[in-house]
Design a protein that fits this description.
The protein is α/β, with parallel strands linked by helices. The protein is built from 6 helices and 8 strands; from the N terminus they run ααβαββαββααβββ. The protein folds into 2 domains: about 80 residues, Helix Hairpins (Orthogonal Bundle), CATH 1.10.287; about 180 residues, Heat Shock Protein 90, CATH 3.30.565.10. About 30% of the residues are buried. The structure holds adenosine-5'-triphosphate (ATP) and magnesium ion.
Length: about 270
Amino acid sequence: MNQGGQLTSEQQIEALQQQLVEAQRLAALGELVGTTTHEFNNVLMTILNYAKLGLRHKDEPTRDKALTKILEASQRAEKITNSVLGLARNRKQEFAPTKLAEIIDQSLVLLEREMQKYRVAVRCEFAEVPPVRAIGNQIQQVLLNLMTNARQAMPNGGELLIRLTHDVAAEAVDLTVRDSGVGIPREQLTKIFDRYYSTKDGPDETGKGGTGVGLSACKDIVDAHQGRFRVESTVGKGTAFTVRLPVFKEQCSATTALPISKLGVPVQTAKVTK
Ligand SMILES: Nc1ncnc2c1ncn2[C@@H]1O[C@H](COP(=O)(O)OP(=O)(O)OP(=O)(O)O)[C@@H](O)[C@H]1O
Ligand SMILES: [Mg+2]
């Protein structure tokens, strides 16, 4: 604040950056409402149909089958709600020990149908990794952005690989989202984290893409986690985004998130192979 009680331009930038991260969170949430309403409807139809089946057929095997199906569908419904609530709830902006595998599972629940629809096969390779120091719903937002970008890079289907590895020496966990899509030309690679940079015409039929804020918001979040991004891409073969996050250690447990602009120069490495 300057003497006149007005915000300095640095403070204004900081406030705007925080608003942008918040707007991105809300946009991601809005997109998910569409996906999940649809998902929820599917689950409800399953429950309804099996309840009717169980009532019609009195024999034990059919009733057991119906009840099992109802149970499975309800568990899926519960998972969907939990995933959305994770994003919706304005959880305390505090770093906590975070299990990335759980966040990946929750994010996949939300995008599962979309991946199927676009013929994207999802493969997970999770090594044993320790919890990282993170704000869970922010990392979920990063994942949803990366997975949506990956899906959009594979208009004719392909494979999405999500991998977790532990770098013991660096006390860090690497989370990789790799697609077998179109790839990113070398000259574009330096721009993809720029705010409003997009090569997409506009939102696709799921209402996603085209504003160019996805990756810039991801980078802000990863910077605030004192993490780093790494991108490897081969045109025509695919792209891998790796987010490196520090392993959670007791002594840093209670730290509150720092404003993004206070965290200094963002670390980002970019590598391209052609
Ligand atoms: N997995 C990927 N494969 C190929 N290109 C990608 C990939 N991820 C990002 N890009 C490129 O980076 C650009 C910026 O991505 P970003 O997520 O920031 O914006 P967007 O997806 O275009 O729009 P939105 O803000 O709605 O996410 C994309 O337009 C695309 O050109
Ligand atoms: Mg995007």
